From TrEMBL:
Record key words, sorted: Membrane, Transmembrane, Transmembrane helix
A Pfam family per the record: MFS_1
Entry's Gene Ontology molecular function annotations: transmembrane transporter activity
Signal peptide: none
Segments of this protein annotated with the region Disordered: 1-24
Protein name from the UniProt record: MFS transporter
Biased composition (Polar residues): 1-14
InterPro entries: MFS, MFS_Cyanate_Porter, MFS_trans_sf
Length: 416
């Protein structure tokens, strides 16, 4: 899941009516067709990205790319997210959310096909195109849910689409390498398998363009970006560092395991396992921490688990299952906390929007450094020891920032 998407969905769900209203049987249900259409979009928001990590060893071998260029390939989506996401709101107000989503799905299909063509230029150009389309989907889908789904159903529908997004991301990691070994075109074809879901989502949303009109500005209260707030920077850095760990693991974990003697197919399924554990942790944590506002030690502990996973990969690479388990539990918990802090540490909805914008724009830039840095370090040392040690140390830094971000205070309050 992309961070911005889940963050907005949680903010939206928090604004729903009281529990008693949600239980009212007289409340309208969500049309099944709309739910299916939403899930089809969600299935596209990570599928074309997470499969690249499982295929990266073969991409590098087949195209002659170095690890540094492979790191850049994994970093491009994050840089594109950071550059594109701020443009979505204005475009939505001008053209309409449903129309813009259909256009984004069309661009996503084109970008996916371009990326799979037998050309290094197309590989990178297609990645930028499809990443820009996904950035639009990340922002538009929660807005469309809020507009189209009854208030008492928003939480359930949002949880469903986040789950579908995570499951499809894991499936993509698991099946991409086996597909590359069994279909004509090898990894080129495997990069494009998700286009079937893109076409399905495009067709599902095409009829929903009718009656879609540009949205007028709501004229809500605007809060300035809290650049001078220590709390805001702690939330932002925690967001960025935990995202760096996730996207770096998705990009390089299969390559690390293959370099240590694992087959590419097994390495892809290990990446699948890591994401399934992460999804389980992100689903369970809200139940375990319900009603708790001070989450300093939860954030610090989850970060230490991530650091422990990278340490195991360095010290005992044969225990890759243990490493992926630690990384999954720690990373899944950190993701939920990072998104939650963006709402909890704000004193108003305006402050929440400003804090989320700061945390996610800078967070994507911080995360983008991870895959590229690991590739450069590996090329320089011809070993994964130093790169993984750096990630373990950054895990301790994540614990420090998470401890600060987890304190029960708001961005306008002085640090305690």
């Amino acid at each position: 899941m992309s961070p911005q998407t889940a963050s907005i969905s949680r903010q939206d769900s928090a604004s729903g009516p009281p529990a008693g209203d949600r239980a009212d049987p007289a409340r309208p249900a969500v049309p099944v067709g709309l739910v299916i259409a939403i899930c089809l979009v969600a299935a596209n928001l990570r599928t074309t990205l997470t499969g690249v990590g499982a295929l990266l060893p073969e991409i590098e071998h087949g195209s002659g790319l170095t690890s540094s260029w492979g790191g850049l390939l994994s970093t491009l989506p994050l840089l594109t997210f950071a550059a594109t996401s701020p443009l979505v709101a204005r475009a939505s107000h001008r053209f309409g959310s449903a129309r813009l989503l259909v256009a984004a799905l069309g661009v996503l299909a084109v970008g996916t096909v371009v990326r799979s063509l037998p050309s290094v230029i197309c590989l990178f150009a297609g990645t930028v195109i499809l990443s820009a389309a996904i950035a639009f989907g990340n922002v538009l889908l929660p807005a469309l849910i809020r507009r189209s789904v009854p208030a008492h159903r928003i939480h359930g529908v949002s949880a469903l689409y986040v789950t579908v997004m995570g499951l499809m991301a894991a499936v993509s990691s698991g099946v991409s390498a086996p597909l590359a070994h069994s279909v004509p075109g090898s990894w080129h074809t495997a990069l494009a398998w998700g286009v079937a879901f893109t076409v399905a989502a495009f067709l599902a949303w095409l009829p929903r363009m009718r009656g879609d009109k540009p949205q007028a500005s709501t004229g809500g209260t605007h809060s300035p970006v809290p650049w001078r707030s220590l709390v805001a920077w702690q939330v932002t850095l925690f967001m960025g560092l935990q995202s760096l760990a996730f996207y770096t693991a998705v990009a390089w974990l299969p390559s690390i395991l293959v370099d240590r003697g694992t087959s590419s197919t097994t390495a892809g399924w290990m990446l699948f396992y890591y994401q399934v554990v992460s999804l389980a942790a992100s689903s369970l944590l809200p139940l375990l921490t319900r009603g708790r506002h001070d989450q300093r030690w939860t954030a610090a502990g989850a970060s230490v688990l991530m650091a422990g996973g990278f340490t195991v990969l360095v010290a005992a690479p044969a225990l890759s299952v243990l490493a992926c388990t630690l990384l999954g539990f720690g990373g899944g918990a950190c993701l939920v906390l990072a998104l939650t802090f963006q709402s909890q540490r704000a004193g108003s909805s305006g402050e929440a929007a400003a804090l989320a914008g700061m945390a996610q724009s800078i967070g994507y830039l911080v995360a983008a450094a991870g895959p590229l840095l690991l590739g450069i370090l590996h090329d320089s040392t011809q070993s994964w020891t130093l790169p993984l040690t750096v990630l373990a140390v950054l895990g301790i830094g994540t614990a420090v920032t998470g401890h600060g971000a987890g304190q029960d205070r708001h961005i306008h309050q002085p640090s305690r």
